[in-house]
Task: structure prediction
Amino acid sequence: MKEVVMKSDLVPDVYEGGFEVWECTIDLLNYLHVHNDVVKSSSSVLDLGCGSGLLGICAKQMVPEGRVHFQDYNKEVISNFTVKNYHKNCGGHQSHHVEFLAGDWSRLSGKFSKYDLILSAETIYCIKSQEKVLRVLQDHLTDDGVAYFASKRHYFGVGGGLIDFQNLVQSSASLKCEVVWSCETGLFRDILKVSRC
Ligand SMILES: C[S@@+](CC[C@H](N)C(=O)[O-])C[C@H]1O[C@@H](n2cnc3c(N)ncnc32)[C@H](O)[C@@H]1O
Result:
């Protein structure tokens, strides 16, 4: 694992990039600081594909009594990065409302609960995984829950991106979505809000 991380940003199905802080995480953090009612009105939050865990940490800091679950593909990322960041930043907050989960989205259904806010950055870069993300939303958003995805519009050379995911969500009978923030300099990036129809 150490060798894989040193050699590459991301190796599909082996290491999914969790040891870096990717730029769309910063976009979503900035968005949540401006629109802090999004977090303040939520009592159960999932940081999906968390890596550093900054989104879940932000939620815990804004609502210390809230429940926050952190999920990453790699258990090494969870134990060596997410948990350490969490304790550095939220050490004083109650941790019995906090859980850390590792594994592929397709195998986590039994471990996730229902969330009224799902936060996720740089997780929809792969077309084949987008179906798994959609399933997580369908199964684990509460009836009036919302999810926010911060993503590049296209991931050149990888295949996925926000446009493809937006189309996938719109083709589902139970979910709707809208772009709530965009940046059109450099690599185009957006934030997509998803909720139930
Ligand atoms: C590029 S990293 C982004 C990490 C972090 N959200 C950020 O923006 O800094 C993509 C993350 O998506 C998650 N991921 C990707 N594919 C996954 C899969 N099939 N199952 C579970 N998690 C996956 C991994 O946890 C990985 O850390």
Remarks:
- Residues 16-18, 21-22, 24-25, 49-52, 72-73, 104-105, 121-123, 129, 132 surround S-adenosylmethionine (CB under 6 Å).
- The chain has a mean pLDDT of 93.
- The beta strands are 44-48, 67-72, 98-102, 115-121, 141-152, 175-183, 189-196.
